[in-house]
Amino acid sequence: MKTSNMRRVTPALLVAGFPLCLAGTVPASAQDQVDEDTAVVLEQIVVSAGRNPVEAQQVGRAYTILTSDDLEETQTRYVADALRRVPGVSVSRTGNNGGLTQVRLRGSEANHVLVLIDGVEVAGTSDGGYDFGALQTADIERIEVLRGPQSALYGSNAMSGVIHIITKGGVRNGYRVSAQSEMGTDESILGNVLVQGGSDRFDVAVSAAASHTRGFNISHYGSEKDGGHNVTLNGKSRVDILDNLFLDTSLRYTERRADTDDQDWGVVIDTRSHTQTNDFFGGADLTWVLMDGLFTQKLKSTGSDLNSRSEGQGYRSGYDGNRYHASYQGTLAFELPDLLQSAHSLTGALEWERETFKNAYQTVYTTKIGHKRDLLGNIVEYRGEFSDRAFVTGALRYDQNDAFKDTVTYSTSGAYLFPQTDTKLHASMGTGSTNPSFFEQFGSVPESFVGNPDLKPENSFAWDIGVEQKLWQNRAVLDVTYFNERLRDEITVVSDANWISTPENLDGTSKRQGVEVSIGLQLLQNLHATATYTYLDATEPDGSEEIRRPPHSGSLTLTYGFHDNRGTLFMDAVYNGRMRDEDFATWPATSVTLDDYILVNAGADYQLSDQLTLFGRVENLLDQDYEEVYGYNTQGFTAFAGFRATF
Q1: Which CATH number among 2.40.170.20, 3.30.420.40, 3.90.76.10, 3.30.1700.10 corresponds to the domain 5-646?
Q2: pTM listed for this prediction
Q3: Considering 247, 318, 326, 532, which has the largest number of Cβ atoms within 10 A of its Cβ?
């Protein structure tokens, strides 16, 4: 009788193989590693697809994985730029790298997307959205993007999806030191170093990354350049306390400054303004595997401390925020071979979370008095596998909020394999919820924004269905997915004639639907192509198009290896179609259309020796003049060169 896939990768094996599987595909050196009891090679794992890691072929949700190899081949230095190549994703950056950068999934708002780094939620408590402005790729092993509602698994802010960033871990029984440095246009300098090591019972990784640029003028007026700098420190470890007891820890600190320009009655003007942000995150997971992998328990604790300060012409603003999280979950995995050769797992989890917020300065509309709110989440998840072909999941969550009405969310997904035709059908359905942010509840500065403590959480229902097809003797993989979402109680900001703004819940339903297409092609032995296309129809309750969500977007990446793959050439193109934005210089704000644009990057690297690689690239090769946010300049043609060394 054929052994089921869920047995082949038991919870114990998932824990033991977790560092091994982070690269997306199992490394060549590990491909012969097998579990002695089952004699089967480890499969590719999607860490974020459930309360426990899930084999890729079993995932019914729409997802994309970007590995460190993908990022390095295209010399992608910022996570936001990597996400432009993911179907269903739209990116809006206010000017230079380091400026406020919002990422949306399937037409959502930025705070509808949950962002995790090594399992720790990293968005600020102020507005609930994560600013990708200065997040570098230097120490990243992989990026997982799950599209569609994930609130049943992750709670508030996972209403339209999850972006999970997993950093590089240590190595066992040895050590490795990697360093990289580059220089380029606008007096830009980037550098990073990564130290990895360990013994047979533990491993650790420590990294440091820094960037600095003089920048360019992000306003259409004046000549003052807007630059910035960033320093990020990251640490990660794993300890095998016992053969069945594992401790994973992570710490991350980021300090960044970004020069900005103020808005005067809605017009971006040239000023010597800046924002200083300091973030500190940490987490610890204790995993205990019992009964030969039949029962797995996990205790998790995370914390974050975030503060931001902004200064401009005649004003200053800022906030301090914290988030504390603790959870317990237990997973029972078992097989019923007489019932369709099936395998099952049942997970129960309990989560507690506290968020705090305090304005840094007291004004007419805000106080320095702190605010806090608590949440208690109760989660149940089921996974089933039948005859190595059919895979189903279901999750139910009940959140008890002390500041809002309690919330129930659910999700279900499924996948079915047709081995004869190399076809996979996948579908998912679920509900999502996003709580109002502290800014929306209690206001912010400047004094033109007044909070609304009577806001209700936003909630949604969504579903998608797709097919993944292997073609051309498995040299091509095509995936096409249709999605549909309905958002209710959407929070928007309204302003009066005195430019006093306040948030409120909209009546009616915001509608979002579209198609996501991705294809990977092995054109020649050393020539690989990936392409994506997204059609998006996102409208507000009155039928108007949502701002900064292009109806048409796509990407194309070509990589070519030469000289026995010691060298690589790449070309990367991103298309952003025409989209709507708003001109806030008028009252009321008027609709404007931002032109479409194509960003083309190209470059090469060459490995001089086993230890040293040289590289260079150009960005915005066509010197496109475009806007991602109305009123803000963007970068023109730039060039960079540097080296990468490993010891």
Answers
A1: 2.40.170.20
A2: 0.92
A3: 532
